[in-house]
Amino acid sequence: MQLFATSSFAPPQSLRLRRERAERILNGLRAAVVFLLTAAALMYAPHLSPALNIANVLVLAPTLLWTVGQYLIWYRRPELPGWLSAVNPIVDVTAVTAIIGGYAVAQSGVLALRSPIFLMYFVVLAGRPVASSVRKAALISVLAVLEYSILLVWLWSTQRVPLVINPIDAVLTARVTPLDEAAKLILLGVFGIVSTYATHWVEHLVREASKESAERQRVVTRLVQSELDTLKLQLNPHFLFNALNSAMALIATDPPAAERMVSELSDFLRLVLSTSSEQEVPLERELGLLDRYVAIQRVRFQDRLTVSCNIEDGVRGALVPSLLLQPLVENAIRHGVSPRAGAGYVQVTARRVGDNLSITILDDGVGVRARRSRVRSRGTGLGLTNTTTRLIHLYGENHEFESGPRDEGGYAVRITIPFKLGRLSPPPHGAQLNGNLVTAVHS
Asked: Residue 436 sits in which domain range?
């Protein structure tokens, strides 16, 4: 069983962005620390030996140049180089080791090993969970332990550090005991393991959160799709109920007309089923459905109503929600024009306005007051309600839906959706598609 298991696939984009931001922040902290160390070295320079000053310059100057150079070369780019998150901690660990070794050469090995600069190893390792991968964190942890071990071996082999076993004697005689240094090595190794495991844990949490977010998004998408399908299924029985009622009314008075209505209804339902799995279809197909619907109404009504379509050239291939036009035209006929004593009309207009498709359904019916009372008394209005809900799900804020009375009398519905071209298909059998569909129907 591996202690630090790594995934076989690339980390999610969110994790890479977090690591890059962390690396930028850590480089800013590195710059601040190096500037502070440089300022301290300048302040102490008159009181230090020339050898110590040279050691400070040899270590701090390259580190400072490397830190500042990153801002000038890479930090103006949108993304940092991937290798930078490994090179920076390697430079930091090596710089700490170099400072300790330089102090040992320039002054005293005891002074070097007792210097608080040793704590910078832990500072470097502490930044790994937020800025590095598990492998990079493990590499830096091993490097810190290895470099400090090599440093100790070199100091002891060159006799730059006088050794004593008793820790108390080491303090009193200004020497170093191997027990203290071994404890420091063990502490550094343990902290490296903790840092690596913390890196693994952060990576695991981000991956799990990313998976859960993607799963939630898939669930939401499925729920929205199910709701859209439900809304479409509500429209079909709604229309079917009205059409069957009309056919039943004609059976007693005009059986041939009832037979023709059932035949037209069969063609209409065949077209509806052909688009049952699609949420968006070309406007051309919606016009075909509307034509079949008008053919059904032609059986019931005669010359009392005129339905016309004015479709601008080039918009027939635009994608629109399936079953968009028929419910709105049905509402206009049943709740606007049907209550009129005289003749009336319904007009469907589609045109492109910039990057949007504008669709208007208007009538010269009884107006908004009579329409509202009729809707309340019959419990209808399903077409407008479902259309509004479907548009919100499909387009969000990228659509407009307006409905209300016209100044000239009657009612108008205006829809604006993004203009997207789909693939035009030949008109279904029996559907008459033309730019100026005009049908007269009589009640």
From this structure: 254-441
